[in-house]
Amino acid sequence: MSGYGGSPPPGWEDPYGGSQGWGGAGGYGAPPGSPYGQGPPPGYGYGPPGVPYAPASNGSTIAALICNIVAIVLCCNIVAIPGVILAAIAMGRVQSDPHSARKLTLWSWILFGASIVIGIVVLVLWIVLAANSEPDYGSSSGI
Question: For the chain, how many structural domains are there in total?
Fold first, then answer.
């Protein structure tokens, strides 16, 4: 049996008991005496179309890639290198596997944040060490 209308195949028994409405004036799915004939009444079936599927966006992935590249260039931080690699892989997966791309992009942003924190810590340590070191003014001649 396919689609609407018609009667069940020979030998078929209704598992819920009874075969009311098969054949007759009402047709399949419509009560006897229904004005809809053999098909279902309007409003039944597949329903209105849903919201169209929006393609996955890779804006965050591109931003993570650029930020990690800038972190490598400016901070010379090796923690951002895996961030660049993860962002590049995520760009390749945006259309085929959006869930995986989202995870990879998140990890890329986490590595970018870690590289920024490490860069700030290194900069503060360098400033503190430079401020606490004794100046050497080239006093090789003992006057």
Answer: 2
- Under a CB-based contact definition with an 8 Å cutoff, are residues 38 and 21 in contact? no
Q: Is residue 48 part of a domain?
A: no
For residue 110, is it within any domain?
yes
Token pair listed for 101: 């791309």
Q: What is the pLDDT of residue 52?
A: 60
| Span 29-76, pLDDT tens digits | 555 555 545 555 555 556 556 656 666 678 888 899 898 888 888 877
Range of the domain at 39: 16-43
